[in-house]
């Protein structure tokens, strides 16, 4: 079954084409990225497995034109992997926010589209773009089934005492203000994968997953279900991130707003786009750049210390929430590729029973590996994530 996976942003779209023999057996046929949608000139990067990248510069007026360009590449004689568009059996979409409507992935129909539209207020940068992708496919490939896979759905098992904020209850009743959590597809995928790697039963274990990258979140997974997560009503809550501040006293927000005479859009930009690694270091939002500067730049070094400390606090908190932990998992761009971050957090968890193996961790990048000694009471693992595969798996199951 050939699945096209789409992840549409406000001015970009990522795609993968996977030939799914089963949920675990598949071949990646092609992948790519369309950038600068709606600007004077767009950029398309298309890679067929086993071949060199193909780059194309052309105007891409909107998401429909972007997806049309992708489809043309997929069936082209020189760069294609399909004989015709009818070879695509289904299309899976990453959708940022499903609110309280969706606790699992759904085959897309008019009712699903209506609910995704209602969640646009909760994810104004992401859901409208996701809808553009869905509507573009419906226009270009009207007979092809589509499936929505939600970033928030895995976290719908979080209990109310963990997802509610201590603000007037009427704001939950009227506006559904609560913790939703994000990165759900990644957290679920790596937890299952790491549990298998560690020889644990996913349904009978306590796992803390650390998805660390430009956007980062930590999740407590007890007996296969998310019971708490660090991101909240929006992805700005939680640990220190690339440009997001993470946890901050709400009083700081109003204080800065008054002092700098900012409106809601202005303060939102400060918290989401000017803070985190970028705001503290003054160097970059990219952890690699900050790490390179940290040897001589005190603010860069401070940024890394703040980041690692913020993750560590969540790991400790979630061990308490679950009355212990069996497995700690690192994934995402930083989690998979930064041995120093993994070692700092793991070494600080010795009190939980972590017997860390620094010799295995040292230099490990982008591989699945247990990072603790056989005698360790708590396992630690580095695991590569693959959100596109999760989307393809759910799409195959529902489209069938």
Structure summary:
Helices cover 38% and strands 20% of the residues. With 400 residues, the protein is of the alpha/beta class. Strand 2 and strand 3 form a beta hairpin.
Structural description of this entry:
By secondary structure, the chain is of the alpha/beta class. Helix content is 38%, strand content 20%. It has 15 helices and 14 strands. The chain has helices spanning 63-74, 110-118, 127-140, 160-163, 170-175, 184-198, 250-260, 264-273, 276-281, 287-293, 298-321, 332-337, 339-347, 358-361, 387-399, and strands at residues 2-8, 13-20, 26-35, 42-48, 54-58, 90-95, 106-107, 146-150, 206-211, 217-222, 225-229, 327-331, 369-370, 379-382. The strands form 2 sheets. The chain has an 8-stranded mixed β-sheet, with helices on both faces. A hairpin with an 8-residue loop joins strand 13 (369-370) and strand 14. The protein is globular.
Measured distance between first and last alpha carbons: 9 Å
Number of beta strands = 14
- Helix percentage range: 25-40%
Strand order across the largest sheet: 5-4-3-2-1-6-8-7
Q: Structural class given helices, strands, pairing?
A: alpha/beta
Helix and strand string, N-terminal first? EEEEEHEEHHEHHHEEEHHHHHEHHHEEH
Radius of gyration of CA atoms, rounded to a whole number: 21 Å
Give me the number of helical elements: 15
Shape: globular
Biggest beta-sheet profile: 8 strands, mixed
Q: Percent of residues in beta strands?
A: 15-25%
Question: What average pLDDT do the residues reach?
Answer: 96
Could you list the spans in which at least 5 consecutive residues all have pLDDT below 50? Answer: none
């Amino acid at each position: 079954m050939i699945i096209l996976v789409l992840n549409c942003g406000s001015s970009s779209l990522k795609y993968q084409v996977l030939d799914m023999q089963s949920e675990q057996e598949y071949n990646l046929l092609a992948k790519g990225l369309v950038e600068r949608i709606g600007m004077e000139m767009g950029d398309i990067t298309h890679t067929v497995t086993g071949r060199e990248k193909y780059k194309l510069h052309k105007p891409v007026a909107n998401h429909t034109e972007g997806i049309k360009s992708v489809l043309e590449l997929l069936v082209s004689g020189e760069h294609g992997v399909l004989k015709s568009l009818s070879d695509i059996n289904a299309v899976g979409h990453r959708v940022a926010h499903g609110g309280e409507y969706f606790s699992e992935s759904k085959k897309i129909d008019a009712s699903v589209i209506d609910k995704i539209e209602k969640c646009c207020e909760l994810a104004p940068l992401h859901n409208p773009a996701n809808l553009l992708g869905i509507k573009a496919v419906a226009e270009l490939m009207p007979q092809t089934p589509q499936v929505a896979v939600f970033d928030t759905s895995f976290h719908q098992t979080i209990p109310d005492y963990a997802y509610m904020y201590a603000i007037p209850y009427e704001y939950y009743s009227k506006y559904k203000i609560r913790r939703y959590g994000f990165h759900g597809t990644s957290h679920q995928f790596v937890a299952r994968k790491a549990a298998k790697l560690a020889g644990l039963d996913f349904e009978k274990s306590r796992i803390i997953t650390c998805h660390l990258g430009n956007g980062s979140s930590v999740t407590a997974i007890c007996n296969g279900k998310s019971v708490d997560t660090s991101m909240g009503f929006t992805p700005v809550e939680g640990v220190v991130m690339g440009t997001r501040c993470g946890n901050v006293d709400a009083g700081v927000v109003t204080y800065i707003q008054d002092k700098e005479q900012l409106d809601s859009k202005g303060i939102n930009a400060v918290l989401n786009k000017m803070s985190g690694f970028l705001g503290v270091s003054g160097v970059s939002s990219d952890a690699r750049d900050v790490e390179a500067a940290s040897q001589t730049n005190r603010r860069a070094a401070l940024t890394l210390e703040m980041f690692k400390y913020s993750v560590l606090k969540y790991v400790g908190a979630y061990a308490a929430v679950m009355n212990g932990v069996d497995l700690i998992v690192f994934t995402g761009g930083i989690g998979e590729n930064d041995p120093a971050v993994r070692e700092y957090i793991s070494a600080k968890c010795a009190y939980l029973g972590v017997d860390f193996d620094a010799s295995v961790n040292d230099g490990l990048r982008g591989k699945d590996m247990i990072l603790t000694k056989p005698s360790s009471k708590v396992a630690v693992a580095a695991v590569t994530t693959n959100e596109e595969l999760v989307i393809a798996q759910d799409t195959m199951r529902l489209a069938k």
